[in-house]
Each structure stands twice: as structure tokens, then as C-alpha cells.
Amino acid sequence: MDFKLPENTTMIADTARRYLKDNYSFDSYIAQLNESNHLEANRWQAMNDLGWFGLPFAESVGGYGGSLLDVCAIVQELGAALCLDPFVDLIVSPGKLLEFANTPTSLALLDRIISGEARVACGLYDRHAGYHVLNPSLRLNGERLSGQKHVVSDGGVADAVLVSAMSGDELAIVALPFDACDVERYRLLDGSRAASLTLDDVLITDEMVLCRGDAAKQAVSAWFDYLCALDCARMYGACREVYQATLEYARTRKQFGTTIGSFQVIQHYLVDAFIDLQQLESMLLMVSVKGESANVCERGRATAAAKAYYANRAVGITQQGIQIHGGVGVTEELNIGHYFRLVTHASLSHGDREHHMSRFIQAGEKQNEVV
């Protein structure tokens, strides 16, 4: 298949690939794994200088007007490099939620994110609600906020967090400082840094509530679909590298007096993996286009289909990559096992395969009702 991207998207991808090749290596990744702070000052400033901080956002809100396809081009290169710099966690994720909320207060905070002044994370998940981000268990009772948020990805450095909460029967998005919460930090499967937050009667002022009701629901729904597309981009970048590494290994690794690439079973795997990789790229292009659709049903079906497909095929490519490499594939010294962790983690972020298959069915039923 011929996947010809727009010229500007190709330039963005090429720039990201070159920058990461020159400034981020597997050794950089290993060193970053052992750090509690994943924000490296020089690379962070370089990303800002490259225009990445403003790219995901519309020109009307102070950004550079990049499309989801453009952002996916960067994120797939971050996945290919195993880069743990929290570009998505501290720029894209909170920034898109603020842009979708589209209130004066949210846009003022977005401006500080684009400029690099603010380090804001998103806390939209909790243990009781699972992947159902529109029904959080966090409660805003009057001026007091109580509950917990889990898997708040922040690179270990956020100073503020956007949380979702129920205020009566309404969904609300609230911005508050990290130090207003009890914070437990930990490392996730892919090596990134996250935190669990406990809020105990935290005082919330009117200015801290960014939006409520239908506006909050629409913002969170659009945010969820956007982040699902970025998960697919990250997985695609990782799978691309695993396939190339496995192909090279099969060409050079000798067993029983010949290269293992001459074995029929290995050849069949490599052909199947190549086909899967082509299909993954096709799905990524589809979700990159439809993931920004104003049609909620179309957008939901596209992101659900892509995420469910990736959770099966992308994970399968990395699993077979380890299988062909043998025992060395699970060692810390080889990147194959680390790619497997990345893809497994991304396949579970913002909904696992079963969750998205259910979403796909529900979105189809709603679409049929409209028709």
C-alpha cells in the first residue's frame, strides 16, 4: 500500500525522527527509566523551539493549527525512539482538554502550557469508574472536592492537575495545584511516571471550575478520542522498529548451520507481520482523520475500531518479535522487550480491547438510530 502523507506532515515526521536520532538513544531511555523526573531541560526546550508545544492547538487559541495527523507523526517517532519525555502527558493531553473546554479560564491556562510556563497533568481516571471517564467517582460537594484519581501521567513533574468530578448530576472539570492532594508516585509498565492522588475536602473556588454539564462531557469525550488516536500512533512507531529489528535478526542469526530467516515458519511470521504493519498504518491514518470529527458517533467508532485492532495486532507483532529473538528478547539490554512493554501499556491506556469493542457496537447502534 502507498501511504502518501501531506507534505507538511511528512516534514514534521522527518524533523522529529532526525531530532530524536541525534538527541535520544536507547542509553538515554535506560538512564531515564531510573529517574523520578522525566523532564530533561535541554530536550524540553528543544521541543518547544521546534514548535511542538503549539502544534496540536488551533491558531485561534494561540497554537499553530496542526492537525491530529501532524501530532500523530510526532508521537509515532517518540514511540519508535522509546522516548519517555512527557510531551503527550504535559502538553497535548491537558492542552487539548483545555482547548475543548473552550472557556476564558481554560484558554488562559492553555496559553501558559503552550509557552512552556505551566506543567499540567490530566487526572480523569479512578478505580471505581474504570475507563468510563464520563462517570467519575470524585465528588464536588459545594466548595469541597473529595475522592481519588489514579494513573495521573505527569512525568513526575506536574505542578497542577485537571480532574473530572461529579457535581450533583453534572460533570465538572476542575483545575487545582498538585500540592492540594496527597500524592503517591510510581512507574508504569512502559517506564513513564504517574501518580495517584487523594483529595480530602479540598477547597474549590469558582475560578478553579473550568466548565460543567454538557460542555464538560463534550470536552472529555473529544479528549478521550484524541488520546486514543495518539496511543495508536505510539504503538505504530514501536511496532515499526520491532519489525525492522526482527527482520535484521532473522537475516543474521544462525542456527543449525544457517540463518533462521531461511526457516519457513520464520518467513511466514515476517510476511504476516509486514501485512499487519501495513494494516496498522492504514488504521492510524483513518483514526488520525476521523479522530477529530465533529460527528461524535463517527469519531467514537473510528477510535474504538482502531484501538481494539491495535490491542490485538500491535501487541502480537511485539510478542512474536520476542519469540523470534528468543531469551535475549526479554533481557533489559535489548530494546525488544521494552517495546513490548510500551505497546502493552498503550494498548490498555484509555480503554482496553474489550472496552473499545463495546464502544464500537454502541456507537454503531446510535448511528443507526440517527439514520
Automatic annotation (TrEMBL):
CDD domains: ACAD. Residues 232-358 form the Acyl-CoA dehydrogenase/oxidase C-terminal domain. One of its GO terms (molecular function) is acyl-CoA dehydrogenase activity. Its cofactor is FAD. Keywords: FAD, Flavoprotein, Oxidoreductase. Residues 7-83 form the Acyl-CoA dehydrogenase/oxidase N-terminal domain. InterPro entries: Acyl-CoA_Oxase/DH_mid-dom_sf, AcylCo_DH-like_C, AcylCo_DH/oxidase_C, AcylCoA_DH/ox_N, AcylCoA_DH/ox_N_sf, AcylCoA_DH/oxidase_NM_dom_sf. The keyword 4Fe-4S does not apply. It holds the Pfam family Acyl-CoA_dh_1. The keyword ATP-binding does not apply. Belongs to the acyl-CoA dehydrogenase family. This is Acyl-CoA dehydrogenase.
